[in-house]
Design goal:
Elements (H helix, E strand, L loop, with lengths): L5 H6 L1 H11 L10 H8 L7 H10 L10 H9 L3 H27 L6 H23 L8
Helix pairs in contact: 5-6
């Protein structure tokens, strides 16, 4: 990457290091409430669910611990993982709608400018990209 665009490559070094540290953070073992989980995920956007379950069950060499909104919701609500995913799906879609409403309100603010618009659109792309990537990347595909 540095051979292609050194400045861009250098600009992602710190976020990648932060992400990698979050993946092995011991606090992952202690998260039992959804609000604490969401705070934690501000620094670590998340992985594919099935792959995380498999790694936690088989003992990943880097110390993988199951840390997912699915697990936290299941434990908090006293339901299984399938029910937890069904509960979370509409909640996340509602947050998406709230984001769109907030973005529309910001557009009306006198300080709204192109840079802020690009930031908001960037958030939308990042989250939709993370969702699609988690579903499609081979890294998180569980082999049957």
């Amino acid at each position: 990457m540095r051979n292609h665009d050194k400045a861009l490559a250098n600009s992602v070094v710190e976020p990648v290091i932060t992400f990698m540290r979050a993946q092995t953070d011991k606090t992952r073992l202690e998260i039992t409430e959804l609000d604490r989980y969401l705070e934690y995920r501000e620094h670590d956007v998340g992985k594919g669910w099935r792959a995380m379950v498999k790694r936690a069950q088989t003992g990943h060499r880097e110390g993988a611990a199951l840390c997912s909104a699915v697990k936290v919701m299941a434990e908090s609500a006293g339901v299984d993982f399938a029910a937890s995913k069904r509960i979370l799906w509409p909640m996340i879609r509602e947050w998406e709608l709230v984001h769109e409403e907030l973005a529309a309100q910001v557009e009306k603010h006198p300080a709204y400018n192109e840079r802020l618009r690009e930031y908001i659109v960037g958030l939308q792309y990042q989250m939709s990209g993370n969702e699609i990537w988690s579903r499609t990347t081979l890294r998180y595909k569980v082999k049957s």
